[in-house]
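To assess whether the prediction recovers the assembly geometry, we first specified each molecular entity separately, as shown.
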Amino acid sequence: SSPPPPPPPPSLPNLLCPSMHGYYWMFELSPHWSQLEDDEAKDRFDVDVSVTNPEKVGDGMNAYMAYKVSTRTSLTMFRCKTFSVRRRFSDFLGLYEKLSVKQSLHGCIIPLPPEKSVVGMTKVKVGTDDPSSVEFVERRRAALERYLQRIVSHPSLLQDPDVREFLERDDLPRAVNTQTLSGAGFLKMINKASDAVNKMTLKMNESDTWFDDKFQEVESEEQQLRKLHAVVDSLVTHRKELCGNTAVFAKSMAMLGNSEDNTALSRALSQLAEVEDKMEQLHQEQAASDFFIFAELLADYVRLLGAVRGCFDQRMRAWQRWQEAQSTLQKKREAEAKLLWANKPEKLQQAKEEITEWESKVTQYERDFDRIGMMVRKEVLRFEVLFVSMHSELCFCFKFQLIKFWEAFLPEAKAIS
Amino acid sequence: MTSIDESNKEKFRSVSVDLNNDASLLIDIPDALCERDKVKFTVHTKTTLSAFQKPEFSVPRQHEDFIWLHDTLVETEDYAGLIIPPAPPKPDFESPREKMHKLGEGEATMTKEEYTKMKQELEAEYLAVFKKTVQVHEVFLQRLSSHPNLSKDRNFQIFLEYDQDLSVRRKNVKEMFGGFFKIVAKSADEVLISGTKEVDEFFEQEKTFLLDYYSKIKDSTIKAEKMTRSHKNIADDYIHISATLNSLSVDDSTKVEGRVASDQELKLTELLRYYMRDIQAAKDLLYRRARALADYENSNKALDKARLKSKDIPQAEEHQQQCLQKFDKLSDSGKKELTIFKGRRVVAFRKNLVEMAELEIKHAKLLDFYELFKNELQK
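The predicted structure of the complete assembly is given in tokenized form:
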């Protein structure tokens, strides 16, 4: 891939103009995010994945976008050093499905795939080449790329046969029953992912309080996130109720208008009924867009948190490995001492070799641990930077929702008077 | 303990129009105290009429006093041909009180800011209920004072003037009438509908119209109330969301405001509710007239029977005459009342709808401001 451009300074991201449905309130996190992830990919293993060349396949409602997934690697477990395949969105979802079943096996958080978007895709299928659908495809492409990059940066996941199959195999069997990853299902999945993390707790003698403190912060942020999710759920329910009630009310007002014997008043009441009816439609749209906007932002937030927790997780494992190596080394030394006593020269030689081996392992694992510790620090600091901008985006989005809520009444006011 | 001021009252003075214009008798409720459940209204009167002892005076009154006044008026024979203004409903603080209770229970689970915000919302709700009840009681009195007949009622004057506690009088009245009228009220609609033959086309039309309109407006009121409740729920949700977002923020610059006003819906609901009660009062008038008609028809039958038996004819004739007179009197005044009522209702509705639209336009102006704010951020 081409050398990455220098990262822009963290500041309030550009606000894109919302499309008619407001689905594209995805603020420009990606320059920061993908830039940072590029760095990470180089930090870790020799696998570089990119998603490019979106192409529409087929026509009408059965059409879909196919992306080129290219891999460049020096690892021997792959057949070639560079290769590429074509994949469609449901394939990515299918990969997630397969991996999430094996979550406990990998002992790490499975990165979440991007969300399905019915409206976005419909526009693409229908073939409008307007800027918003081009934008949509580009966002999706970027999100899919980030998703794959996160997967391959996990040493454990990289080993997974499903992942390799996804990257390498020319004709992948079509994924069926991919969970509808939009709407309530998506947020449920987010919660599941968080729960999985909570179950993985390793006790560690934390010498460095910095890590402990940061972990606490991340955990408390996660709690707030859940709360936010619950309230957003409640908001959506109440909006639906409001829709229903407004519709029913509008009908009732229309009936009242019919009963009214004063003609001018009757007309006014009927108009009011119409207005209320329109408001109901607006409320419905608002309910849908409320949900999607927030869900997308929350989802990104969760992905961020997930990445950070994943790091903490990795650090714990590295520590564990180091500790285990140390205790193994200790045992080997004890064994050697015993052999010295027993005076068995051949076994002694072997024991000395094992000790040397384990000594180097201990050193290496300690270095790994330190290295990962530094990575965690970097990750957390990145997170904090992104979080500030992310949070202000959430707030702004929320403010905008309030405005739209009021906006709904504007044209109707003119209608009545 | 809460009280209100003049400027706030203006906002709520909407359901009726053209009241309290006659300088000979001006009534208002400038002040009210809320202690737990009981609301104490200060009824203030300014008058040029000689029937009163002083030109200006104030008395404290409770809700029960208003009910007493209403009931005595309803039970007065002389006013059978009039539409008695509907009694103000009892002050209902149940909903905000329940919410306050829930809030207290859930205090531990929310942040200080969230709790404060919710508390503020609830206090605003309390205040709104309070203002509404003051207004509705005030309108009741003003309807009476602007009615040519009712304003002269002796009990009304006592209500306005008597500077002692009215509870003694209230007890007496209850014993005397025993709520007789209330018991019969339930079957009133049946009498009207199953109906006496209606000779007068005006009343036939009115009857049909009012019965139909009443059921429709009742329906609309219930649905409007449901809608308002949904709106409130959403407003509460917004408060929770903004509080949660704020608790995540690193500094104060990213605070959000979670308030969503829905004045226009409140107004509409109030209007519907008020006219629902008013139409019930008009229906009551029709009912009384229908009863009078039934009495008249019965007296006719009794007269025929008496003539047949040749017994007690003079009494029967006299009774029949009385019934006829009563019926005619009710029909005359009833016609006048209903015509005035119709006009008043149309005017009030129109005024209300206009005010609603103006309120929404005001909101829209606020939206322009937000638009500018948004553009600034995008630069």
